[in-house]
Amino acid sequence: MTKTRRKIDAALKTKIALEALREQATVNELAQRHQVHPNQIYAWKKQLLDNAARAFDAKVGAEAETANAREIEKLHAKIGQLTIENDFFARKLGR
After folding, report:
1. What is the pTM of this model?
2. Can you give the pLDDT of all 95 residues of the chain as single tens digits?
3. Residues 82, 54 contacting (CB under 8 angstroms)
4. Which member of 4, 17, 70, 82 has the greatest number of CB atoms within 10 A?
5. Rounded alpha-carbon distances, angstroms, from residue 20 to 10, 50, 52, 59, 95
6. SS3 8
């Protein structure tokens, strides 16, 4: 019998990490309550602390969006170029 992995959504991870930060309960108690490994809670807690500044930095989201938009533009241009080349070579070969 294979055991399927449990997928934990970001909201629950955040909730557990915040509970760990508040230190109202030990990590082991939280792990038992939410049925996850204590090391995972420590990892989520560290990830939350490392990325907490992004929540208050308005530039991070805007810069990421413009970078993504530029990347998408470049990819669309490359797709167009490759399509034209493909059509050209297909005509040359008589297909």
Report:
1. 0.59
2. 678 888 999 999 999 999 999 999 999 999 999 999 999 999 999 999 988 877 777 677 777 788 889 999 999 999 999 999 999 999 988 86
3. no
4. 17
5. 15, 15, 15, 29, 64
6. coil
